[in-house]
Write a structure and sequence with these properties.
The two termini are about 30 Å apart. The chain is about 55% helix and about 10% strand. Strand 5 and strand 6 form a beta hairpin. It has two domains: about 110 residues, no CATH class; about 180 residues, no CATH class. Helix 2 packs across helix 5, helix 3 runs antiparallel to helix 5 and helix 4 packs across helix 13. A six-stranded mixed beta sheet has the order 3-2-4-1-7-8, with helices on both faces. A two-stranded antiparallel sheet has the order 5-6. The chain contains 13 helices and eight strands. It is α/β, with parallel strands linked by helices.
Length: about 300
């Protein structure tokens, strides 16, 4: 089993839960710091190279190798902090909720999901502890279907079962779950999905993200909104300086019509991506994206290491 498979295995998830539950938070963070330093040194690792490449792009290709190494370490450290917090409180709903700020915007999203008057697609970038924040929303009353990666590892499957205990309907993306999502949205419900994880095969639609083209970002959220009349809301989580998490929400966005169907998908996707860019730019060291959105930049980053 390679390191990447191990990290997403059910054993690794259970081990993380054990560490998070048994160790004081301060000790857990110190352990996360140590692990991050050991990982970040291994510049030949696919995970490290991918984080470097993604960060190089979102900083406009202007970072020196020293700066790139420093922010990559911060990203991996932050991922460790998120895991410690998630697994420390994942089986303690009240303590979990206490880690995430309860704001008027949060209460509005929850209320709208309960009233089911207008279909809403809540799209989330992989910034900070989005998983913990999502569970906190659910424990506070959010009613939603979550569209997740359609080929989950054993660790993701275990994680999804735990997520479901918060009341969320976790559904890997397939024809059945998409039909369910369409029906839910037409009835005024809420569907949640990520929008910055690369697809398994390139999309026909080329999108501009951080001023660089890519064919690897999903477009399904726009197609869902177009088919159902649902609005789209971006929800981005961040860790504040006090260690608490907060989710910030955009205004509702509607699909804008264009005469060309493909242009309609592209332009509306890019409208959402502009909001995502702003959220990531506020906390670039909290963007936990371990998959290459611009694969062609990995050799560029390797060349900087020489």
């Amino acid at each position: 089993m390679n390191r990447q498979n191990f990290s997403t295995s059910s054993f690794a998830v259970r081990l993380s839960m054990l560490i998070g539950t048994m160790l004081p938070k301060k000790t857990g963070y110190a352990l996360a710091d140590l692990a991050a330093k050991l990982i970040a040194r291994r510049k030949e690792m696919a995970l490290v190279q991918t984080v470097m490449a993604n960060q190089w792009v979102i900083h406009g290709g202007k970072l020196s190798m020293e700066e790139l190494e420093r922010i990559t370490l911060k990203v991996i450290q932050h991922a460790g902090y998120c895991n410690i917090d998630l697994y420390k409180y994942i089986r303690a709903p009240e303590k979990l909720k206490a880690q995430v700020l309860d704001t008027p915007e949060t209460r509005k999203i929850i209320r709208q999901s309960q009233e089911a008057r207008k279909g809403c697609i809540l799209v989330t970038p992989h910034v900070s502890n989005f998983d913990l924040a999502l569970m906190a929303l659910a424990y506070r009353g959010l009613k939603a279907q979550v569209l997740t990666y359609n080929h989950p590892t054993s660790g993701y499957e275990l994680h999804n079962k735990i997520r479901e205990k918060s009341g969320l309907a976790i559904t890997p993306i397939n024809q059945t779950s998409l039909r369910k999502a369409i029906k839910l949205l037409k009835n005024g419900g809420t569907v949640i999905t990520g929008v910055d994880r690369p697809t398994e095969i390139p999309e026909k639609c080329e999108l501009t993200f951080f001023n660089r083209p890519t064919n690897w970002l999903p477009t399904g959220h726009i197609r869902l909104a177009k088919a159902t009349g649902a609005v789209i809301v971006v929800g981005a989580t961040q860790m504040n300086p006090d260690g608490k998490y907060q989710t910030l929400f955009s205004d509702p966005l509607s699909v804008q019509p264009y005469s060309d169907p493909e242009e309609e998908i592209q332009r509306n996707c890019e409208t959402i991506l502009r909001v995502i860019e702003e959220a990531i730019s506020q906390r670039p060291d909290q963007w936990l994206m371990y998959y290459p959105i611009w694969p062609e930049t990995i050799p560029v980053v390797r060349s900087l290491q020489r």
